[in-house]
Design goal:
The chain has helices at about 20-35, 50-60, 95-105, 125-135, 170-180, 200-210, 245-255, 275-285, 315-320, 345-355, 385-390, 415-425; strands spanning about 5, 15, 40, 65, 70-75, 90, 110-115, 140, 150-155, 160-165, 190-195, 215-220, 225, 235-240, 260-265, 285-290, 295-300, 305-310, 330-335, 360, 365-370, 380, 400-405. β22 (about 380), α11 and β23 form a beta-alpha-beta unit. The strands form six sheets. It has a four-stranded mixed β-sheet. Strands 4-5-3-14 form a four-stranded mixed β-sheet, with helices on one face. Strands 6-7-9-8 form a four-stranded mixed β-sheet, covered by helices on one side. It is globular and about 60 Å long. The protein has about 425 residues and is of the alpha/beta class. The structure holds shikimate-3-phosphate and phosphoenolpyruvate (PEP).
């Protein structure tokens, strides 16, 4: 197994232009496919999750060109659903933003599609989405365990009507349903059951649907109405914002490292809810400055916080390691869904934080972290979870440095993360 030792860094100063948002990239690729007209995606993310979406679309016959650095993509839309005359098997890795939306989108046309993924994908639920699609007439069969991929879709189109969906495990189910609703045969009304988690991701979905010309009536995120006969129409060009979750590591580095770090490509005007990470960091005492498309974090004395982090589930992991540099305990609550992501993130986080000397209380849906007087050096296991690798890089700001096992797992969303981190650390 590859290991990366990060030597202690005392201070950072610099600027990082953040690569494109995973959430926007995969949504935009799918909507561009279903839309009429040609779409140019600017600042597309080049990472495993996007490669899985692109290779699925390519297998299905969607035509697109990519620039050499793969951040500029021009895609010719189908002007409607995908119709296939032979059976397809599509491997989607561990990309939730490919698996869930494609599962829904492939029910719209005709054909037989089998969706598979990495072993961890077979443990990540999809049942609430499949249940909702079945209410609209979809024929979906599980190949191994009920409620989990792999699965086979026998597509004949979706009827309209009222559909209930459970939003308490993942917002990606509602996102997937919203994106296909305009192409159902009749009007669709979506009623959300349970507490909707990760709610700000729905705003990204609605924003992109609007950019592609579809109107959705949103009644307090509990009921959505999508009129029939609305096709997606390409807006021509979609500019992908920098990824707000990816920005969190550098902002935390600025806040902990005692210098000043500016992230560009994402700021006050961002549609991504994870920019609120900067507010959580500010609540810990960091000095944050917002621009329309940049955020600056300056070092200051940090203190622990007690916060519901359901609205920033991905960037919240960065707060867990930033908490090691704060005075007093940090409690992060309402994050049960950490357990069903790339790994059981509550368990993984507790185990690895204890290795560096923190006192950790792990509950069903919360974690409380009391920092050690001085963190100790540890080899951090990353559980094939890009965010475990990236957030533990912050331990480079402790006198002991840190060793990251399997650093290559950042390729899911940020292939050159450690190169960027090293550039920043050496820029002072
Ligand atoms: O819709 C999206 O793009 C995402 C939604 C969130 O998932 P859940 O809704 O499952 O919490 C987030 O964790 C994931 O990285 C991306
Ligand atoms: C949960 C994540 O990914 P996915 O899109 O696979 O759900 C993540 O990126 O932290």
């Amino acid at each position: 197994m590859e290991q990366l030792r990060l030597e202690p860094v005392s201070r950072v100063n610099g600027e990082v232009n953040i690569p494109g948002s995973k959430s926007i990239s995969n949504r935009a690729l799918l909507l561009a496919t279903l839309a009429s007209g040609e779409t140019t995606l600017v600042n597309l993310l080049d990472s495993d999750d996007i490669r899985h979406m692109l290779s699925a679309l390519k297998s299905l016959g969607v035509s697109f060109t990519l620039s050499d650095d793969k951040t500029l993509c021009t895609l010719t839309g189908l002007g409607g659903p995908i119709h296939a005359s032979k059976a397809f098997e599509l491997f989607l890795g561990n990309a939730g933003t490919a698996m869930r939306p494609l599962c829904a989108a492939l029910t719209l046309g005709t054909g037989e599609f089998t969706l598979t993924g990495e072993p961890r994908m077979e443990e990540r639920p999809i049942g609430d989405l499949v249940d909702a699609l079945r209410q609209l007439g979809a024929d979906i069969r599980y190949l191994k365990n009920d409620g989990f991929p792999p699965l086979t879709i026998n597509a004949t189109g979706l009827a309209g009507g009222v559909v209930e969906i459970d939003g308490s495990l993942s917002s990606q189910f509602l996102t997937a349903l919203l994106m296909v609703a305009p192409l159902a045969k009749g009007a669709v009304t979506i009623a959300v059951k349970g507490e909707l988690v990760s709610k700000p991701y729905i705003d990204i979905t609605l924003d992109l649907m609007a950019k592609f010309g579809v109107k959705v009536v949103n009644d307090k995120y509990q009921r959505f109405e999508i009129a029939a006969g609305q096709g997606y129409v390409s807006p021509g060009k979609v500019l992908v914002e920098g990824d707000a979750s990816s920005a969190s590591y550098f902002l935390a580095a600025g806040a902990i490292g005692g210098g000043e770090v500016k992230v560009t490509g994402v700021g006050r005007l961002a549609v991504q809810g994870d920019v609120k990470f900067a507010d959580a960091l500010a609540a810990m005492g960091a000095d944050i400055e917002w621009g329309d498309d940049y955020i600056i974090a300056r070092g200051s004395k940090l203190h622990g916080i007690d916060m519901d982090m359901n609205h920033i589930p991905d960037a919240a992991m960065t707060i867990a390691t930033a908490a090691l540099f704060a005075e007093g305990p940090t409690r992060m609550s309402n994050i049960y869904n950490w357990r069903i992501k790339e790994t059981d993130r509550l368990a993984a986080m507790a185990t690895e934080l204890r290795k560096v000397g923190a006192e950790v209380e792990e509950g069903h849906d919360y974690i409380q972290i009391t920092p050690p007087a001085k963190p100790v050096h540890a080899e951090i296991d990353t559980y094939n979870d890009h965010r475990m690798a990236m957030c533990f890089s912050l331990l480079a700001f402790a006198d002991c440095g840190v060793t990251i096992n399997d650093p290559g797992c950042t390729s899911k969303t940020f292939p050159d993360y450690f190169k960027r981190f090293a550039n920043l650390a050496s820029a002072d």
